[in-house]
Design a protein that fits this description.
This protein is of the alpha+beta class and 112 residues long. It is 31% helix and 29% strand. The chain has 4 helices and 6 strands, in the order E-H-H-H-H-E-E-E-E-E.
């Protein structure tokens, strides 16, 4: 699958895991790297979802289909599927929004 990023700041961290380690715990960075590798290795979003890696959960309240992948107990990597709801299973491109703690009343972004 093809991966794009929500902003140049997000892309900067996801293309340099050494830089990411400066702002996030090492275990989180390892998990995020695994998620990125698994996404890239999948031909489409359906295959990625069927693996169940990272406990993908669809989030509500977003215009496009958006999912979270577990990074730690409270931190999640947020990805947006670049397709309509009807085409989600054949989609071959996602956009990484960043890493956040969305539990509770507000979103606390670690990488916006």
């Amino acid at each position: 699958m093809k991966i794009s990023y929500a902003s140049s700041k997000v892309e900067k961290y996801f293309n340099d895991f050494g830089k990411m380690k400066k702002i996030l715990p090492f275990e989180w960075v390892k998990t995020i790297k695994k998620h990125i590798n698994n996404i890239e290795a999948s031909d489409n979003f359906s295959i990625f979802l069927s693996l169940g890696l990272g406990r993908p959960e669809q989030l509500s309240g977003y215009q496009r289909p958006t999912y979270s992948l577990k990074v730690s107990a409270n931190a999640r990597m947020i990805i947006e599927v670049l397709a309509d709801q009807s085409e989600i299973m054949i989609c071959d491109e996602i956009k990484v929004e960043g890493v956040c703690d969305y539990h509770g009343d507000k979103e606390n972004w670690y990488i916006p």
